[in-house]
Write a structure and sequence with these properties.
By secondary structure, the protein is α+β, with helices and mostly antiparallel strands. The protein is built from nine helices and nine strands. The strands form two sheets. Strands 1, 2, 3, 4, 5, 6 and 7 form a seven-stranded mixed beta sheet that branches. It has a two-stranded parallel ribbon with strand order 8-9.
Amino acid sequence: MNSGGDHSGSSLSDDEWERFLQESEDGVRDAPKEPSARARMVTRRLQEQDARPEPWRTHQPARPRRRTGWYALGLVATLAVAVVALAPGRVTDWFGGGSDAATPLAPESARPTAPPPDTSAELPTLDEPFRGSPAARWASGTAGITVPAPRATGWMSKAQVARSLERSRDFLTASSLDPEVLRGDHPAEAIALINPRQPKERAFLDRSLTTPSEKYNPLVLFSRFDTSKVELVGDVVKTRGRITYRTGEMDALEVTTDVTYVYPVVSAEAGSDRVTRVVVRREVVMNWPDPAKVITEPGTFSVISNRVNTTNGGCETYTGYLTPSFTADRDTGEGPAVDPYDRSPAMDERMGGAGDGKCGTATRS
């Protein structure tokens, strides 16, 4: 038996049922009538439903709460959107974006007509080595070197020009961007792209890498650091420049590469965290000759000329390595002041204004 009612399903008690029978025999006019079987069943179900415990999976809506918190959050979000719209630069600074998070520059398609604007006086850090420098907006590695569309030139078809431009860029990678070469290793891959049948050039390379001097300076072609004194910060080198080409002598393909490289470095002394930058602008003119007219090795070029202008890479030091200074008076001398990020002067003008080889003063690093 269930506590909700008897098994028959009647809603009347025993006493009421007794009275009902008695009054029925006596003919009481207002005697209650026995409920029908259907009525008793419905009554029993209702009683059982009222007594049934709530199932554990039953969902009971919670009482509504005041939404003051949501309204406040919505107000804050609205204000934040307004601040971003009115002062996006300030919001970027709040979250540590700084100059390194600035919009990247478009590739350099022609020589610029003016130097890049001053960015800020912020100093570089180990986490942001290009902070406060125009290079913060430059591309990294070969992405910052513009390669023009190929066209049939000289003795070469369009496809041959495309291949020669690709290998010219490979030389820049192997000579000025390869991490092992930057740490002082022998630039074997870069040298393999230079025509071995150019005896004077090969003699220059061998001597400059073994016994460097003012005359035999490997830095005109390669970027190298002495890791016992200098360590590179991270693995990113910022670049900006372009490759151009034309028909050269004897119908050769003449390729000119003019690229500025920015290397962030720190002293190799334990605990050093003062970051400085070495800025190298290097121009290499290559000749891809017609093998029917000039003795050469397939896939190699001859060096026509090479020039380099360096900021904070050492003044009148010929060790075969870039030797930056970490003091405030770096790169001061008798030469003129030079903005190392200004690519508007041609290399002829830049080298001609170097004060007859005297060290100058960089206006920024």
